[in-house]
Protein 1
Amino acid sequence: QQRGQPRNRKSSMTQRLLNYVNGQWTESKATECLPIINPGTAEHFADVPLSSAQEVDTAAKAAAVAFREWRRVPAPDRIQYLFKLKQLLEENLDFLARTCTEECGKTFNESKGELRRAIENVEVACGIPMLMQGRNNEDIARGIDEHMFRQPLGVTAMIAPFNFPGMIPFWFLPYALATGNCMIVKPSEKCPVTQQRVFELIDHLGLPPGVLQLVNGARDTVEAILDHPVVRAVSMVGSTPAARAIYARSAANGKRAQCQGGAKNPVLIMPDADMETATRILADSAYGCAGQRCLALSVGITVGEAKEPFRKRFSEATQARKVGYGLEEGVETGAVISAESKARIEKLIGVAEAEGASVSVDGRGQKVPGYEQGSYMFPTLLDHVPPQGEIAKTEIFGPVFSLMHVDTLEEGIAMVNDRAFGNMACIFTASGAAARQFRTETHAGNIGVNIGVAAPMAFFPFSGWADSFFGDLHGQAEHAVEFFTETKIVVERWPKEWSRKF
Ligand code: NAD
């Protein structure tokens, strides 16, 4: 049996992916489809339909009907579905991880890791009976009490990116469900298969039809969701231009929105850092998931005497990284999402060269034996990258690490803060004082101190800032609970003399 292969599992997936609407697997009427190609092998294994506005309308109306009853189901009963979902996700974890690797190229262990975080969010949302409690005060004035309740919004939607096809919908979905909302998930058109598999499990939960739905598609499908009058709230994760556009259109249509955007994450390497640990951790942050994490570190700023020892070690680590098909043992860096993405990354390395950077480890033009058709980009180290150039500011989204240098911690912090994104910033140091100054003064929502991927656990919000986030309340934890509920204030007076005497 192969890694992650299911045992005796019946699949709803044909060549063409299905939508899941009103509790039924539904063939989209779309005439246009996009091919889903395994980036590690170049095998074409599914097609995703680009669902129409009418199909979005059907799903939105089914959700609106379902909401009337669903919101009245007591929270302790709603979370029973999540306990069951956790169980099903655990039982099918290897199979889902395999699907995730097949459609997006990351390694099997990386896929398992993202699914663990998905499950963790289900677990946290099981605490909803406490998490969505309101608050109250007796006697705000003589004989008058005031209460704040949290009520669900209604129909919500989640628009997902390609790079964590198993995990990212789960930064939102369990909280939407548990707080009493209905949700339409629109997976990435580049990686829609894992969510198809997840919804095969959701189909077994026995949820009322219309509470959770899956509608496949791309930009037009999203715009139909954003323009639909019944949809109250939109959660989106993706590139900054898309996040900005979706946030603006949602707001123009009077919807609540939270849109997590792109990134270009820097790390300061101080001279007192343990260079071996820093190199090992940073190589995994920069080159793991083929550099396609929104929390990948892609800019290394060495401070003072850190320059030479770090550069030498990191160059060796870059060359030593094992690139290959994500389902094979021992592979550390899998494929990037597509041949177009590989070509774009290679082109950007050329831009860096033209700007004056040196390519000290060049990952262009290489192939993985046995997988020659795959979209493999080998780790690449750029040195002397000009801080004001295009490459220092562009999200490359591939296994490319840019080195820069400053003389002091203060200069380093200024360089970290001189950019549009604010998803994550990290420091490697043995000094508590340096770490403290960094964490206090740095403009980023997720900070790592001797950590390479400061990804918040499910019980903390995922706190991107600046151009990495449009909105107020982030995904996960109490932010998600607040996002998916609106507060209702009740001020009440019950004079004794009005009561019937018994
Ligand atoms: P993308 O922006 O191309 O697509 C994301 C989703 O938005 C897809 O479902 C797509 O169909 C839809 N979409 C794209 N453009 C649209 C438009 N103009 N109007 C309406 N809908 C549109 O992103 P991607 O390439 O799938 O994902 C990679 C990006 O996501 C990277 O920039 C990465 O940094 C970012 N990302 C951010 C986070 C975070 O938490 N901040 C997490 C993961 C990924």
Protein 2
Amino acid sequence: MNSIHTAKPYPYPLPNNKPCLVIIDMQKDFVEPGGFGESLGNDVSVLRKIIPNLLDLLTCFRKLGLPVIHTREAHNDELSDCPPSKIARGNSTLKIGDEGPMGRILVSSSDGNQIIPELAPIEGEPVILKPGKGAFHNTNFSKILTSLNASHLIFTGVTTEVCVQTSMREANDRGYECLLVDDCTESYFPEFKKSTIDMVIAQGGIVGWVDQSENIISALEDVYE
Ligand code: C5J
């Protein structure tokens, strides 16, 4: 059985079918000034440091013809898919649906809701619009994974302890083999990122595996090229 032998807490098996790259919420709302992330009081520049690593991993998946799925945390214009509790929550200067410098906060039609240009999806790469923190809640993510015959998901994106971790846990509960890429995920709070990584690999990999992008790229090239 092929594997990524450097993964923690033990080698991550690589399947005969294709592993899928899942890029969570690399949208302007969280990564650029003027969006939801900044309105919550965060320094968004800390999230940007993963972009070069994520681009390398994305390029590898595209080169090898392996599937890539993007998500955006997004609501419709009427906010009919957004519970009032979600709008009320948080100490932000701009609430979900308010007009900000990049258009309405977390509304799918806004400029701020689009994926950053560096990682923009290309033709054939599905983009899941998710109204919740997890990628499965009220979306067609399950259907797309089934249509791809996916069993192994490689998770990246922001923020580690919110949408990435929630989505990975949802996937783990549904039987997917999940690997979190340490240097391709980021949090506004370094200690929360560290805790998430620790939690994933604790107790013999109770939620999945963790590794660095360089090791993953090298293993994928060996197995799928
Ligand atoms: C948050 C996310 N943090 N994508 N969303 O509200 O993690």
Protein 3
Amino acid sequence: MKYDFAVIGAGPAGYIAAKKAASAGKKVLLVEKKKLGGVCLNEGCVPSKTLLQAAKTYRHAKHGSIFGVEVEGIRFDFPKAHQHKNNVMNKMRDGIAGLMKKYKVDVVEGEAKLLPNFQIEIEGETHEATDILLCTGSSPAIPPIPGVDLEHVVDSTGILDRESLPNHLVVVGGGVIGCEFACMYASVGVQVTVLEAMPEICPNLDPEVSASLREGLAKKGVNFNLGAKVQSISADKVSYADDSGSNELEADLVLVATGRRPNTKNLGLEELGLDIDDRGGVRVDNRGATNIPGLWAAGDVPGQAWLAHAASRMAEVVVNNITGRKDHMRYDSMPAVVYTSPEVAVVGLTKEEAEARGIKVKVGRIPMAINARYIAENPDETGFCKVILEADTRKLLGVHMVGGACSEMIFGATAMLETELREEEIEEIVFPHPTTSEIIKDVFMAVR
Ligand code: NAI
């Protein structure tokens, strides 16, 4: 069959691209070898956030007495939380299938391989397309540590299938995935230790944000060993080296969360001469175009931003360019969230990143604890909001927050950045009271 647009991979890049291109009148093929929704829906964002919410609900109930809520005999039913997680995933998958049907996208189940001249082979059948979007996602990058293949060692996909709680979870890697699972397990009473090779967790965040997140998680019971390089894993121990020498910890579940790598194998990419960068990602320009005209890439496969919402936006950018509207990615206004308790939500440049670009900045920072709604709802949490402005123009460059509800507020800061608002324009925006979002208005009073 001949298509206008073929999309390989049905994650948050693929199904959004397919829907958008089909609604613009293109004849679209969407190929998926596993399940609709990709990693985000089946092995990532959606199941992990559903389990995090289950753990948060348990913790709130357990510590409800500050609100006057006394619950007797409270317990956490992990299999039931998994059932809820599975229901959510099924509903969302049905939603995507319905959307594809509505927009008349041809969905084909199978493994696609690219052939010369824009031919695509799927399970013995060949199709053709004018444009092709590669959005095959990423997989956990497992380091060559002896023992990583043992049965009790899991990655971020494997841990989502575990329906019983361990006694001691050791997390290798204090990045976003490591922190989210550490928070979830510690919230339901599991002993958790994070081993992070760098001097601080989440090293890509604003350093004050990373430190505050670590302190917040430590208050929930997560133990952190920083500067700890894992050397080997045995049936009941994890061995690591830090400044004090060689150490070991007992563990009955080990999560390896040391990053991800783009899925570029067995797709026929080498034979086509597709440009792959040193980190294994498909090299694209800011429109998602590869070095082969008509072949595009979006989502995790270019290895630029490992975020579902970035993937969807990349997909929109590609489809806009194919359908005649000029568009490009703007990573400086790409929000990111860590769904821990406390949450982290950031958008734009940190002070350090702005200064490295030679920009003179002004910084404002206020504690979340000045906000009435925040302390009413989060009596046991600290956190702060930090804003970065360009010194001369007072243009907003970045907002960095730690604390409950940040994930629901960051889009506001994103809109301000995307529309290049300055301090005086933001001051004229009315924020509803009492809401935690007022912190974004109030932080400007602290800019120096
Ligand atoms: P990551 O790159 O965020 O963190 C991995 C951490 O492991 C680093 O801090 C690194 O220093 C450490 N590490 C590496 N080797 C180690 C070793 N041998 N011993 C101890 N520590 C070691 O990767 P992560 O957490 O696996 O996440 C992958 C990607 O997925 C990230 O880019 C993340 O942003 C994205 N993601 C985003 C989510 C969100 O937006 N909420 C949720 C989950 C993932």
Protein 4
Amino acid sequence: MVGVSVEIADVPDLPEGVAQHFREQGIEELYPPQAEAVEAGVAEGESVVASVPTASGKTLVAELAMLTSVARGGKALYIVPLRALASEKKAEFEAFEQYGVDVGVSTGNYDSDGDWLAQKDVIVATSEKVDSLVRNGAQWVDDLTCVVADEVHLVDDSHRGPTLEVTLAKLRKLNANLQTVALSATVGNADEIADWLDATLVDSTWRPIDLRKGVLYGQALHLDDGSQTQISRGNEKATAALVEDTLTDEGSSLVFVNSRRNAEAAARRLSDVTRDHLDPEERERLEDVAARIRDASDTQTSDDLADAVAKGAAFHHAGLASDHRELVEDAFRDRLVKVIAATPTLAAGVNTPSRRVIVRDWRRYDGDVGGMAPLDVLEVHQMFGRAGRPGLDPYGEAVLIANSHDELDELFDRYVWADPEPVRSKLAAEPALRTHILATVASGFADTEDELVSFLERTLYATQTDETGRLETVTENVLEYLERNEFLEREDGDLRATGLGHRVSQLYVDPMSAAEIVHGLRAADDRPTAFGLYHLVSRTPDMYELYLRSGDREEYTELAYERETEFLGSMPSEFEDSAFEDWLSALKTARLLEDWASELDEDAITDRYGVGPGDIRGKVETAEWLLNAAERLAGELDLEWGPAIREARKRVEYGVAEELLDLAGVRNVGRKRARRLYEAGVENRADLREADKSVVLGALRGRRKTAESILENVGRKDPDLTGVEAEGDASEDAAGASGDDGSGQQSLGDFE
Ligand code: ADP
């Protein structure tokens, strides 16, 4: 099929106006892999697996499939691997709304059926969200005609891969004619993925812009075409020298390092390089971006990021708040920020191409091996793929750094010449099957053990395995576990989910988390404290762990004895080493949540626990979700702890002590303003509706607009503050001058 030239106008069935739209975007002729996909029928409802390098136009393949499907009266689903990407993709697809294509994004709670999505033509969601929608019986799922799986090679990920795998199997079972389009990085065994999905394979190494790969050793940059260039180094470290070298050519760099801390340190160091390459206008615009970063949150991380950005460098990692990430990515695309130091987790999917990609660290700490392990070839190649902006750079360059001659050879063998590892299903592991078997039975995909096995045969795992019996053995263990915990009943090969089992499946918690919660709640003989509940949810496998640092063991052991009476369920003995460690690290998380719910400042928390603001958000969000699940489970079991759980959840949601719950729930109030109102004697909503306006205005530091909107939100009849003087020493001018009333962040509501 090589060499076929296809114009966008030749694609059949596109909605009216769309071809013109693409042409206006500079897309006239399809890239060769896109043309191949069209030849394979991707615009006519045929299933296709496209294994194509990063930035070679996979999105367009997906768009052609979805838009033509919609034009024929169908409905399409686009599955993204990360939540952060869902909004990005939605924004991209919204360009088609003017041609009558409605786009919806489904994020948020995992326990609704998202009925409103029935009206949409194109839906964007993560695989977890789709899985939960299926579990909750969303009717519109039956109407899907096209499903796209982005970054399908992630089925190899042991944590999230199985969900994508099972979800695709379920969607395909529900709808035999479903068109499946899977987009993958270039992997060696894309043919197996295509086999599994009954799809035609488009396997290509074509890129729109040349990529040169190489390794820097000393001053010499060895490239894969056999050439060598000199990078002048002086006293500079390798990374700084490479960044400087790119800058003299007016290019930007992306530096991959192995930890958040390293990303921050690298950005700080590299900002000393970039600051000498800024013109006055750039400096001014960067100051502006830095100010917006400071506004977004009042933490050390935020300050550090702003300091670096003002000088033209930035860091990017999962500990950053979403506003920060967006500001950094935009400034990089606008060529204001000249270098980003990033962790590998964020390499995938983030659309920030740059002239040069520098993979500084090719080893990373791996908890499973308890030490440093080399990155996968696939991962490094994806980082490489970010090099080169078509139309802007003459070529992209991806560079590794060697510290010895042997390492130079090793890096060439390991990454430059090497092919990526094959993608292997990770489904046949107990934690994955525990949740998916329960859901498969609870949502009616299998009523007997035979049906369950034949359902599992539709997965990639079954296509790939030659280990006979492994799936059956793990399945048997899992069924026993689910039965023992009263989630499933088995009789003569028939399978039935119990009421509790249905609940657990719909709540989208790991059955093991549910079992821990049920056990803990049943063990309580008194109203549980918020702290006890935080600890309970923190010890479930759904809450990712905070690691214990040196010295933590003593500190938290002491705390464990101090607060022993509050725990739900019995504490493991200090001699059961790993169980006790887990208990303590859950305790650390519980105290973080308690600190947050006791109005401790965000930056005090980041300091105390050595985490970023994004981590606090992550913990708070997970705690809210698990406490909501706990409340529903308590209801299912007729336990009387519902109100206590709800209160504990509201406290983490707003980040306030008990007495502020009523006030903090009013829109625009938030934790800090609620505290100030309370201290001024305005203790609840009723007070707020009646209180002397000058007191309210004083407590809100003279912020008239804010105060009016709060009064309006609480339903006060006369929210107008014209002519009202603020009580106390707060004057509008003083507060207005800094543009800040010290309330900082309103809440951690922004989780996207
Ligand atoms: P991938 O998803 O493979 O990483 P993208 O779909 O993001 O890559 O495409 C990278 C860039 O190439 C986008 O900016 C896109 O607009 C552009 N592009 C895609 N197809 C074409 C084409 N046929 N002609 C010109 N530009 C294209």
